[in-house]
Amino acid sequence: MSPTFIFFCFYQYSFLLNTGFQRIQRYNAICRIQNIYEGNSEIDDNV
């Protein structure tokens, strides 16, 4: 396997991780907005 191939795989993998992490953060933000909207003052900061 050439180094460029390994780098490309690592790049793709990190890209997938980043998009997944951003999706989770966006979902958490939506949950927090819903909690605030429903009048729940207890917000979990655990990610």
From TrEMBL:
Protein name per UniProt: Uncharacterized protein
